[in-house]
Amino acid sequence: MLWIPAGLALALVVLPVVGLLARTDYARLPELLTSGASLNALRLSLVTAVLSTVLCVLLGVPLAVVLARSRSRGVRVLRAVVLLPLVLPPVVGGLALLFLLGRNGFLGYLLDVTAGVRIPFTTTAVVIAQTFVAMPFLVVSLEGALRGAGDRYERVAATLGARPWTVFRRVTVPLLLPALGSGAVLSFARALGEFGATITFAGSLEGVTRTLPLEVYNQAEADVDSAVALALLLIVVAVVVIAVARPRALEGRP
Amino acid sequence: MRKLLPAALACVLVASACGTSAGDGTTTLNVFAAASLTEAFGALEKQFEAQHEGVDVRLNLAGSSQLASQINEGAPADVFASANEKNMDKVMDAGGVEGRPQTFATNQLTIAVAPGNPKGVEGFADLAREDLTVVVCAAQVPCGAATEEVERATGVTLAPASEEQDVKAVLNKVRLGEADAGLVYVTDVTSAGDKVDSVDFPESERAINEYPIAALSSAGEPELARQFRDLVLGEVGRKELTRVGFGAP
């Protein structure tokens, strides 16, 4: 009897997309997608989502390893904190970033006074917002994999005389690669669709901070057809990324 | 148990799909109003409910273009009050309006600045100053269209740090201190109290926003819809609207 809830679940995911496809104005599609504003938004989205995925990997892999391997109680509390961006409404996340890095935030004020650097309303702010919301996806999938794998290979490597950094590079990372792949794809997808934290923290300006989701929202105010076309573009990009990065996931092989 | 769960789920889905009729004898009047009307319509809602026993006025407050889309997609709405004529026209073109929409209020732009105006903003031309971080509405929303009109009328071109999606977002950027100045409506500054100050500028006369209201042809309660519209257009409505800073048509 699993097929009834399974069918409902599938319908919930697929039918809205079908609705979108049914409403798309295919005759105007090329014209709508190649407007300057759309192309600027697409370019900005791809660049920022790639950058924030790289940041997620560079910072998230060490964090996941620390969280998975540590036995102290404090670290267990930290694990819950890392999940916060998953449950925070993105707008609240954006506000939190503003209170930290905005002109009146304590770090933002320091940056402004000492270095003359202001983060809000810049592309950097977009990348920070995306990294903030996407990082937990990477950390959670890696941490799960690490716990599943245990640390016996690492201990063996260590008894054979490998230094910690060599163990991390030659044993831990290769073991993690599949989980790293899916975690990175999840993070990229989340960064690509990021809306609330971006518009709150970074604002919305063409070519600087207006990513594809923000442009969709912007277009929806004036021209729903255009918004639908852009949403379709966002879906295509997401599907392509999933297909390229995780071909095995599409074929159902582990 | 295995068979029960999907069945229960289906019931929940069906029930929520048609959950607008109240089963306890009260009549619901769905009023779709622009977000800038939150305060004024909140007061009018209470008055209308006091005058009409058993009537529950439900306010759906959002951006006018979102409301227009919702109405055109068949959302249950009895009255529509829009922040500009364009979005009322969208509903009218789709055949959703009963009779002709009537203008009940006007609104115009002002410059929101931090309390005490620390950056010394004196008029619209000042907003082009390079030392100011200025935030405006995107051209697609009414306040942004008004901003563009003022820019054209004055010949002053702004280089905003951000083009926000609605006027409250602009106001928030000023309140949080991220922006030195923002172009918002007079009514937004009124509702923000002492959190922001405003600098009025004479050129705002060049882009006056008119708010139309109409009863909708799909109204489930056409008579009540007309009465609510008349309340807004009448003396009581005028008083509430003036109190929060709206101009008379």
From TrEMBL, chain B:
Signal peptide feature range: 1-22
Location of this chain's protein in the cell: Cell membrane
Keyword entries, A-Z: Cell membrane, Membrane, Metal-binding, Molybdenum, Signal, Transport, Tungsten
InterPro entries, per database record: ModA, ModA/WtpA
SUPFAM superfamilies hit by this protein: Periplasmic binding protein-like II
Chief location of this protein within or outside the cell: membrane
Pfam families to which the protein is assigned, alphabetical: SBP_bac_11
GO biological process, one term: molybdate ion transport
UniProt cross-references to CDD domains, sorted A to Z: PBP2_ModA_like_1 (cd13538)
Membrane-protein topology: Lipid-anchor
Top-level taxon: Bacteria
NCBIfam families: modA (TIGR01256)
Quaternary context: The complex is composed of two ATP-binding proteins (ModC), two transmembrane proteins (ModB) and a solute-binding protein (ModA).
Family: Belongs to the bacterial solute-binding protein ModA family.
Official protein name in the record: Molybdate-binding protein ModA
